[in-house]
Design goal:
With 247 residues, this protein is an alpha/beta fold. It is built from 8 helices and 10 strands. The strands form 2 sheets. The protein has a 6-stranded mixed β-sheet, with helices on both faces. It has a 4-stranded antiparallel β-sheet with strand order 2-1-4-5. Helix 6 links the parallel strand 7 and strand 8. The structure holds adenosine-5'-triphosphate and magnesium ion.
């Protein structure tokens, strides 16, 4: 049984905007799956549907046999996930340590254990004790990303979701964060879903890649087969990534 099954998922907003128009996708346990697509193409909407934040118009999403639409198993379903949001979404009025402790406290551990888990996760993502007492606004974007990752993994999820993990970061910091994400996913053995429109991020992190265009998955395959796969949208995506801007 696949870990996650998207079964003919449709999402139409009230104004009649059809963003997802029959998405079918299976993600296996332990794989790192990348969802690639243009800006505004519905990647974040798909993730919000997966996390039960948005209701489906039609179709179903099933994780370990549990439907996102099953009210009786809602808690069990939700406990499987943790997300690194596009904008980090750290609490501004909490220190870095408090941010991670707040998440760690959601998983029914003692106060002392929560403190230990939070510190251990912060160390695991490369943050030193000196930043634990600082507020998000006092640290760099790369450090905020690390802190957000520490918070995400402190929930001990089975599925980690990264929405645009390198957006807003310079290329060097983005590369460092990508390495950290890859190491984290491998060491925890979780299933990972990464949303991006950056082909290099996709090729680096992916076991398999899916391309979302006009509300459907137009191609799914191994990252190594993406280049030259013959799909017009994939080819155009590669071409566009090589476009040199005019002076
Ligand atoms: N709550 C909402 N109500 C109405 N329309 C929405 C809502 N959320 C998203 N949309 C629309 O859905 C479309 C897809 O948005 P989405 O944020 O999923 O794109 P994306 O692929 O994540 O883009 P990006 O790469 O820029 O993050 C957009 O046209 C957006 O305006
Ligand atoms: Mg998005």
């Amino acid at each position: 049984m696949s870990k996650i099954v998207f079964d003919n998922v449709r999402k139409v907003f009230d104004a009649g905007l059809c963003v997802l128009n029959g998405v079918n996708l299976k993600i296996e346990k332990g794989e790192s799956h990348i969802i690639l697509g243009q800006s505004g193409g519905g990647k974040s909407v798909l993730i919000r549907c997966l996390l039960g934040i948005l209701e489906l118009t039609d179709g179903d999403i099933v994780v370990d046999g549990i439907s996102v639409k099953d009210p009786d198993r809602w808690k069990e379903y939700m406990k499987k996930f943790s997300i690194l949001f596009q904008g980090n979404a750290l609490f501004d009025s909490m220190t870095i340590l408090q941010n991670v402790k707040f998440a760690a406290s959601q998983i029914n551990k003692s106060k002392d254990a929560v403190n230990e888990i939070a510190k251990e996760k912060l160390h695991a993502v490369g943050l030193e004790d000196g930043v634990f007492g600082l507020y998000p606004a006092e640290i760099s974007g790369g450090m905020q990303k690390r802190a957000a990752l520490a918070r995400a993994i402190s929930l001990e999820p089975e599925v980690l979701v990264f929405d645009e993990p390198t957006s807003g970061l310079d290329p060097i910091t983005g590369g460092v964060i990508c390495n950290l994400l890859k190491d984290t996913v491998q060491s925890l053995g979780v299933t990972a879903i990464t949303i991006t429109h950056d082909l290099r991020v996709a090729e680096f992190l992916a076991d398999r890649v899916s391309l979302l265009n006009k509300g459907v998955m137009v191609w799914t395959g191994h990252a190594d087969d993406m280049r030259g796969c013959g799909n017009e949208f994939v080819e155009n995506f590669y071409k566009a990534s090589n476009v040199i801007l005019r002076k």
